[in-house]
Specification:
The protein is built from eight helices and no strands. By secondary structure, the chain is an all-alpha fold. Helix 2 packs across helix 4 and helix 4 crosses helix 7. The longest helix is centred in the first third of the chain and has 35 residues. The termini are far apart.
Length: about 220
Amino acid sequence: MAGARTPSASPDTRTDPDARSDTDARSDADARSDADARAAAEDALLAVRAAEGDEEAFAVLVRRHAPALTRLATRLLGTRTEAEDAVQEAFISAWRRLPEFQGRSSFGTWLYRIVTNRCLNVLRARRPAAPLEAAGDVPAAEHTTSPARITEARDAVRELREALDLLSAEQRACWVLRELDGRSYEFVAETVGISQDAVRARVFRARRCLTQALGAWR
């Protein structure tokens, strides 16, 4: 029929699995973004109340952020005990410095910076101890896991620990935040207190150092 319009070739999300996947991924990303924004807003409100002397508000912030900060500190310092001490000292410092928090970054980022700086001071005061957690967990013994495979995994962890000993404190901090925490260069730069270009340089050197050190094992 003359003048009839040709149906659009745009994907039908009801029947196109790829289109549904893209839509679901965007929806999930939007939901995470909204949740992060709400959490940041709640943190900012709690920080204001804590700065006014509300200890319960600060306790909520501690409970909310302590697990992630302890994981970070453990990866940087290598031992749970040192990590817990560093995080505890960081929270004490944060409580005292609450009036300095101006909200230019999120409260979580501010805490990350305090914990990272505390860990950097510890690392600079001694030869860095490579974190076992940086290599991931050694596979648990299963029916399909042979003793040789378990030994190989343990050897890999040991090799990585020795390789990480070669990194400087700042290289390790940048590498952990970027490679293990999956943070953006902007976030790492703000947390460590250096430029994004400096972060990229340190991550690059850390990768090269680890690659060279692990080359023999591979």
